[in-house]
Design brief:
The protein has helices spanning about 5-15, 15-30, 35-50, 95-100, 125-140, 165-175, 220, 240-260, 315-330, 335-340, 360-375, 390-395, 420-440, and strands spanning about 55-60, 70-75, 85-90, 110-115, 115-120, 150-155, 185, 195-200, 200-210, 215, 285-290, 295-300, 300-310, 345-350, 380-385, 400-405, 420. It has about 450 residues and is of the alpha/beta class. It has two domains: about 5-200 and about 355-440, Aminopeptidase (3-Layer(aba) Sandwich); about 200-350, Alpha-Beta Plaits (2-Layer Sandwich), CATH 3.30.70.360. The protein has a six-stranded mixed beta sheet with strand order 1-2-6-3-7-16, with helices on both faces. The chain has a four-stranded antiparallel beta sheet with strand order 11-13-9-14, covered by helices on one side. It is elongated, with a radius of gyration of 25 Å. Keywords: Hydrolase, Metal-binding, Zinc.
């Protein structure tokens, strides 16, 4: 990565140690969703007020108990440039005692090894948040006079889809002040690629009714018997076996979907160069599987809980209909299911929309030019394979949103040994700083 010659770039190089120390302290605040108050009130808000030159710093909290604070900040331009909103969440996926055993380091006490900083939230997304905060700090310290406003929201609630307390509330607070926001740059980890669209997701639950019977009677449920001996579903029905059949059918349906849907950005693996995530735009994730409740009884009930990720150009109603067709077709060859069809429910927890912005959007093109200038590499336009606050900012607040951030979901996000490559971290900080200047129309008097 080339070192930029601009004053903001040099300032970032000179303050790399402080940036990393800030991130380490940020990670030490254990802030799972719904427990973000301490990190927001004790760490982010004081830093914004005391260590940065924001024109205003506001707490936006719409929760009943006043314990879900978002931190909004504004640097006012002279009105001659475009406004830019940065957005990122402080809440993280918690690490249970059982999950912590899979970590090789303490998830709440960050360590640096081989150019990587390890800790919960390093990647998703306290590392990217730190980069955007210190990019703004660099612009301020370099006395850059902006033409447009620079806005920043550090929010709560993202990991449990609680945007009504987080990004929606924070963004609406700016809009209610009469600020026009043409673009939001969310800093979720994208491997420093420009993500112009994302997946959407819905959850589902399928309950399969079987018929309990003592496990010694399994032979009667599975094999023909001589006349007058009860067999099959007269005796019992193994809901676990039906579940296994259904899982196999869903795997085949998922394969068909991935062969069917193609897209330059999302299904094609990035453009104009390949992205870091690979192709494959759709997934049927059967994540919680349960069958039976007693070791000596053939399972009389089984449940599948999971969720589907799908691209923004696919109709979720059609996908759900095809999943229902799979269940219905299984019943055609299964006498028990014909009389006792599985119960299917969807969108009980997650109904997370996608976001989508064309590559031709001026903010995408400006960011692409900045990436190329700072990194001396061709920018990669790709799609976020997961979901992010962008979708709600776009759908509920009417603000177009793109993502660019250091790290990658493959780097331990939501799992053990989450890490952030520090070289990417510094590069992203410089890109953010230069994007502020390029988009907001900064006048760098000291260069």
């Amino acid at each position: 990565m080339a070192t930029t010659n601009t004053e903001v770039g040099q300032w970032i190089d000179d303050h790399e140690t402080e940036m990393i120390e800030f991130l380490e302290e940020y990670i030490r605040y254990r802030s799972p969703t719904e427990e973000e108050a301490a990190v927001q009130r004790e760490f982010i808000e004081p830093f914004f007020r005391d260590e940065m030159a924001w024109d205003s710093v506001d707490v936006v909290d719409v929760s009943e108990d006043g314990d879900r604070p978002n931190i909004n900040a504004r640097l006012i331009g002279d009105g001659e440039g475009e406004t830019l909103l940065f957005n990122g969440h402080s809440d993280v996926v918690d690490v249970s005692e059982a999950a912590e055993e899979a970590w090789t380091t303490d998830p709440w006490d960050p360590v640096i090894e081989d150019g990587r900083l390890y800790g919960r939230g390093a990647n998703d997304m306290k590392g990217p948040n730190t980069a955007m905060i210190w990019a703004a700090n660099a612009v301020m310290e370099a006395d850059v006079e902006l033409g447009g406003d620079l806005l920043m929201s550090i929010v709560v609630g993202e990991e449990l889809a609680q945007q009504e307390y987080g990004s929606i509330a924070a963004t609406e607070a700016f809009l209610e002040d009469g600020i026009e926001i043409p673009i939001c740059l969310n800093t979720e980890p994208t491997n420093n690629e420009i993500h112009t669209k994302s997946a959407a997701t819905f959850d589902f639950e399928i309950t399969i009714r079987g018929k309990d019977v003592h496990t010694s009677q399994r032979n009667l449920t599975q094999y023909p018997q001589r006349h007058d001996i009860p067999i099959g579903d007269e005796v019992g029905v193994d809901a676990g076996l039906i579940m296994a059949e259904l899982l196999q059918e869903f795997a085949e349906l998922e394969h068909q979907w991935n062969m069917r849907y193609r897209d330059e950005i999302y299904g094609g693996g990035g453009t104009p160069a390949p992205d870091s995530q690979g192709v494959g735009p759709i997934g049927i994730n059967c994540t919680v599987l349960e069958a039976g409740d007693y070791i000596a009884s053939i399972p009389g009930q089984a449940t599948i809980e999971g969720h589907v990720f799908y691209p923004p150009f696919v109709d979720d109603e059609e996908l759900w209909g095809e999943m229902q067709d799979v269940v219905d077709s299984l019943a055609v060859t299964h006498d028990w299911l014909a009389e006792h069809p599985p119960e299917m429910r969807w969108k009980t927890v997650f109904d997370w929309p996608a976001f989508e912005v064309p590559i031709e959007h001026p903010a995408c093109q400006t960011l692409g030019a900045v990436v190329e200038s700072v990194t001396e590499r061709q920018p990669v336009y790709s799609g976020f394979k997961a979901v992010a606050d962008n979708s709600y900012i776009q759908r509920e607040c009417g603000v177009d949103t793109i993502s660019f951030g250091p790290g990658d979901l493959l780097m331990g996000a939501h799992g053990p040994d989450e890490y952030l490559p520090l070289e990417q971290f510094v590069a992203a900080t410089k890109v953010y700083a230069e994007m502020i200047c390029a988009w907001c129309g900064g006048d760098r008097h000291n260069e």
